[in-house]
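Ticket #4471: structure export looks truncated?
Reporter: QA, pipeline team
Priority: medium

Steps to reproduce: submit the single chain below to the structure queue and open the exported record.
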Amino acid sequence: MRRRFGGPTFTMLAPKFPWGSDPSRGPIGNPPFLRHTVTAAPVRLDRGSIIGRMNADPLGIALQEGEFTVANNDFSDRAVLILGEYRLVSNIDFMAGAGVNATATNIAAAISRVRGFSATAVLAVVTVEYSDGPISEVDFRSTYFGTVINFTPFAPTNGFLETGRPAIAAPLLA
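Actual output as written to the record:
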């Protein structure tokens, strides 16, 4: 019986653009990279041949994400979006648009300016992604200083973004 052991791990950078790019536009006209890292290690026999690889998740990398709907365009009272340690305040960090769809686009742009976050708006639905770690519990909710509820429903409903991948667990042998 030959002994098996894990070799040294290595980490590689896996960049991703949040949207399409055009190299002819230079660094100013292109989106910044969202940086991800992938860590893997070979599994070896005692004689040194590689028999497989330890990989954190066969499904690959997934960002933490969540979504909400802009349900009301009346921001006469303050509405605050809570994204991890950041707070986006209505009429300061984002402005109401001509309708809920335009407001959702403005909110997505404001979220995308926050370090580690990116967002897209489709009609009144805003999808938020967090790229600075797959296992952090990132707050994802809102609070209001008035009677108007501007954002509903939040998904997931537990007040945190959905956990990304890879999950921290025992390695899978491939």
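Status: closed, not a bug. The export was complete when the record was re-opened. Leaving a note from the reviewer for reference: The mean pLDDT is 77.
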